[in-house]
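quick one, 280 residues, struct below
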Amino acid sequence: MNRADLKFFKQMFRPLYDAVYDSEFCRVFAAKKYRHSIQVLMIGREIAAREPQLQQETAQFRDMGEKALLFHDVGRFMEIYNMYRDNAFADHGSWFSKRYDHGILSYEMMKDKPGYNDIRILASLKHHGHMMEKFEQDPEFRETADSETERQLRAILGWVRDADKLANFYIQRYEDNLKKDPFFVTMSEEVRQAQLSSDVVAQFDAERVILTGTIKSYCDRLLCCLSWIFDLNYRASYQICAENGYFDMLLDLLDQYNHDKIRQRKIADKIHFYLAQKTI
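---
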C-alpha cells in the first residue's frame, strides 16, 4: 500500500461525510469509522510483524492485504448516509432492525476499481463481517483460479477479520465510552437494561460467534463481542488481545449489566480458558 491508496480512500470518504452535514451524530460516527479504518491498517501491520505465516508472504501479498485492511469498511460511509437518508437512527432499537450490509457496500464500491478489484481483496471487503459460512457459500469465491490464489485469499480474509476485531476492541478499551457507542446511543432504556437472551447464551456456550440479528439487549451485544474470541485466525491476534486485556475489559462491562452472576462467572471462565489455550 502507498500514499495513493490513502488519498483514494479519503476521496471515497469525503463526499459521503459532507452529505450528512446537518447530522452531528452521523458526522461523528463517520469520522469514527474513518479512524477505525486507519487503525485496522496499523493493527494489521502489527499482526503481520508478529505472525510467522504472514512474515513469509511476498511483497505483492502484503500490498493486497494492506489495501484490504484499509478499504474493508469503505462501505460504512455509504451505510451511514443511507441510514441518515432514511432517518433510521431516529428510531430506538433501529440499529438492530435497519442495518445495511456495509461489507456488500464495500464490495460494490470497489469491484470495478482497477488495482482493488482482485478477488483476494474483494473477498475481505465483502465478507470480513459475515459468518464464515456465508463466505464458504458464496459462488464467486468457491472456485478460485488456482490453489495458491485461494490460499492467499483466505490468509488475507483471516488477517482483515482479525485486525477489524482488534481495532474494535482498541476503540472500546482506549477511546470510547458507553455514551458514545452507537449501539448504546440508539437504544431505549428498556433495551439497555434487558438481560442476556437465551438464544445468545446458547450460541456462546456452543463456542459460536453470536449472530447480530439475534441481539436483543446491550448485554447481548457485549457477549457478541466476547464471542469473537472463537473467530480469530492468528496466534498473534490472541497474543495482542491478551497483552491488552481486551476480553477482561469486555467482561467487566458485561458484569455491570448482567444480573446473573453465576452465568457471568461461567462466561469469564470459558473466555479465560479459551484464551490461555490459544496463546500457549
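The radius of gyration is 19 Å.
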